[in-house]
Design the sequence.
């Protein structure tokens, strides 16, 4: 009887320890799942960050290319304006010569 009582007491202690260990195991699994989720979020954030960095680099390159094209077009426009002004000056000079010749013809 004493041995049975002792075994029952030991069995009850083992059951209590079993429940305690199960609870700790579930808490550990929950913490592990949370940590995996956090690390997964960090990896997702790192991937997104890397993707955004690539996009930014690509956009910077496009902007640089567009700036170069814009500068080139501005140079062309300035050259055209200069040519136009030079042409106007030449036309005015020729108009003055024509006017002078008209006056001479009218005088004659």
Sequence:
């Amino acid at each position: 009887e004493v041995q049975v009582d002792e075994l029952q007491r030991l069995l009850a202690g083992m059951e209590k320890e079993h429940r305690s260990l199960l609870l700790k195991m579930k808490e550990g699994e929950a913490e592990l799942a949370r940590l995996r989720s956090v690390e997964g979020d960090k990896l997702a954030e790192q991937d997104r960050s890397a993707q955004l960095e690539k996009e930014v680099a690509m956009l910077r390159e496009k902007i640089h290319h567009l700036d170069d094209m814009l500068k080139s077009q501005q140079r062309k426009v300035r050259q055209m304006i200069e040519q136009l002004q030079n042409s106007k000056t030449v036309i005015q000079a020729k108009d003055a010569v024509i006017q002078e010749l008209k006056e001479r013809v009218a005088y004659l």
In short: The helical segments are 2-107.
